Amino acid sequence: MSSADPSTYPGGQINFLYVKSKVYIHPSTRKQDNLPGFLYVFKPHPTATNNELTLGWVAECNVDKSSELYRTLLHVDSTGNEKLARRPAAYGSFSFALRFMELYSIQLRTPHPGWWAGSIVLNSKSGYDNLPVLFFHDDESESTKKEMNARKKNFEIFGEDKELFWGGSMFLSVLKKWATLVRTTVDKSVYLVNPTQDDVNNFSPHRKNGLSAAEDENADKNKGKSGSNLFSEGVNKWFTETKWTVLDKFAQLTKLTQDKLTELNNTLSQDPYYNKLISHPEVQKQLNSEYGDMAKEYLAHWAMKIREQSNRSRRIEMSDKYRDLLVEELGINRGNKLISETEILNAYEGSREVTEQEWERWFDSEGRLCITVGEVEERIFHGGVCKEIRGEVWLFLLGVYDWSTSAEDRTIIAQTLESDYKLLKTQWQENQTAQDDEYFKDQVFRIEKDIKRTDRNMELYKRTTPDEDEELAITNPHLLKLKDILLTFNQFNDKLGYVQGMTDLLSPLYYLYQDETVTFWAFAKLMDRMERNFLHDQSGILDQITTLNDLVQFMLPALYGHLESCDSNNFVFFFRMLLVLFKRELPWGTFQKLWDILFTNWCGSQFHLFVILAILQKNEWVLINTLNEFDQFLKFFNELTSGYSEEDVDEQGNPISPEEKFDLVDLLTRAELLFLKFKSMINVIDLNTKPGELSPISDNLRQLLSKEIVIKRETKRVIG
Amino acid sequence: MSKSNLSKYKIVFLGEQNVGKTSLITRFMYDTFDSTYAATIGIDFLSKTMYLDDKTVRLQLWDTAGQERFRSLIPSYIRDSHVAVIVYDVSSKKSFELLDKWIEDVKIERGENVIICIVGNKNDLTDERQVSLQDGEAKAKAHGAKIFLETSSKLGYNVKSLFKKIAKTLPEFEAAGKSGEEGASEMIDINVENTTTQDGQCQC
């Protein structure tokens, strides 16, 4: 490279050190909007230091295909050799370029093949420039495919952290030639670029007002944060110093939502059928008559049904619009970046269940998990699992097997569990004294009564002969196994013992395994999470009702106000949903899918409270406008799934199954977005709470962010 | 009672597990019986409109869980109830002995402002009977229960009669009830009533 001026390259060119083609920007959730481009690193002049190297991206459409620049970009990408060319234009869609010294951190978000592409999030030191998230479409990049093949030949398909190689991780290893990258401990997916000692030491969640992904302690691994900081300067201006103003602002925000909601529901009142019905003199008379209550209940269900149907068609036919409407309805103001686009996008991809093949791909030849637990949890959270693998998946999710075990380890564990169970069972089964105990006899009586009336419509649990007299003896072998499991549990957790409602939790597990030992241990693990619901003093369930009360007050103040004015803010109508985790409210397949999601703890171990919050949010208009008494609310929630008639048909006249009617996907989407909104609100309030100042966020609300299951044990045995 | 506002009466069903509270309600509401009806957890509630002459009332039937630990929820439901139906199982002495506790709970919440009704259910289980009719009557008398009946939800025995008697005690029908005691029942027309009732044998 001979040049008259050694401090510049000839002809004002720059030197491309690295180029990767087919690196995309996803400006919206529509595939057709995805923008392919080149990610590059160049040296601006021959004497430039590493800190002066420039990292940038330019859209394919902004590079003339006949230009020298285009050929150079392709050349550097395919050969890996550096080459001189003119500088890419700094203008154009989403193009950016910044010097290494301006880079603060890089977050790597690993791909899920067939699910989403891997991406990187760049954060600059200024924190304010909006750097787009870069997606590596590895299957389209020739150079990446070539390198992967080469690695496969050498059996080097895993990177240093045992993660699969992909475009982003390769980029990172190239970057290491020119910059020091320090992986953060708070979020292992984040690398600091040339950090100062202070950056490394003072790594706290509340550094600067621009909260970068790296600093966000709660940042979910691989979970989308937009390229910019979670809260832009604009948002911070919104929230002034005092916490009360913050809360006040949120109230305003929610009021905005309320207006939107009203607007949305005006569509309902514009519905010709609704208007015809409501304006009919007979209906008016009924509404004001002694039958007003019944008419109201009917209207409430009818309105809910209309909404459900229109939601469903909205989602199927206009998924983008549905998303926009929902985001607006939930008061997630996109401009304010309370929640990033990627997070919103992820929440909407929640309808594809994990298949057997996908599940198997997650394990290596020794049966050891080869992706991270976080990835597994996030994936299962967004879609649940298919019924063929549900039993196995639950053993991991519930903690019977640790994720780190190999297939061989699990065989050994299974043997231990088998002998442990036998031993426990012997303790009561071969012990006459134990069996003569009054408490034990009571429990046998209770258990027998309850298993005879649990899920008897299922083929597995039906009577062996139709005219069998079960008052004399139970003969269905599966019921007898349920009985043995519950009596052994009664022995195993002797302080808690058997309590009504447990058969509802046990029966779905037995149905999956149809094996006494495996079912017992899965049940015992499930009971760790559920024990607090069954305590004699009911404190565990009351804790949840209290938390729900706080949560509704915080997230849906208008509805809370209405419930309060109707003396119905005690939320006891959710008792049954809480006690047996929606088992009674939802059809068989639907609650199992919901359990898949809840067991991941991905959005906290108490995500079921957000599901209830979503039910309230979804029906907010109906609840505020048509119901005003405690018993009406109770009836409404008790009949959430039974409020539909057998004749319900869709637009094409096909019958709608109960699963479709309940529309779990819609509810879970709402629940996740509400969770994300909640999390952001807590973050903002924390940022605005001065050190030493009492936080307005109650501990029980804060606990909703925790993934640890809440365990509360019975302290002594109480009869009854 | 204003004409534009239908009177609602709240009736709570209490008693030990598996004595047949839900079955009684289901028999009255739908005239069906299913021995495999899932145990009630939390609170369930159904409402039914009853007609008598030109009067109409709405009955709210509140079904509760029997296990003791779920009882802490119940007081709020008892609070504004008009009638408490306390059920035992004639084939379970224990469920009968525990009646006292339930009656006490009701009295603590409502004092004398509630009509107590004691029902011995499952009287079809003749071979397994552990509580005699006389014992039941004596207990009802001792507690000042206005109504005592033995029923069988399984056979539909005395169930409609039970609800007729309950209706008779409500303010709307009180006049009719007082004017002709036994004869009053002929004036009551419950809309779910079939002609082929197995009513009769009122025990009080």
From TrEMBL, chain A:
It holds the Pfam family RabGAP-TBC. Residues 202-228 are annotated as: Disordered. PROSITE patterns: TBC_RABGAP. The keyword Cell inner membrane does not apply. Keywords: GTPase activation. Transmembrane segments: none annotated. Residues 384-602 form the Rab-GAP TBC domain. GO terms for molecular function: GTPase activator activity. This is Rab-GAP TBC domain-containing protein. It comes from Wickerhamomyces pijperi. The lineage of its organism: Eukaryota, Fungi, Dikarya, Ascomycota, Saccharomycotina.
UniProtKB/TrEMBL annotation, chain B:
Pfam families: Ras. Keywords: GTP-binding, Nucleotide-binding. One of its GO terms (cellular component) is endomembrane system. The keyword GTP-binding applies. Its main location: membrane. SMART domains: RAB, RAN, RAS, RHO. It is found in: Endomembrane system. GO terms for molecular function: GTP binding; GTPase activity. The keyword Nucleotide-binding applies. It is a lipid-anchor. PANTHER family: RAS-RELATED PROTEIN RAB (PTHR47977). NCBIfam families: small_GTP. This is GTP-binding protein YPT6. It comes from Wickerhamomyces pijperi (Yeast).
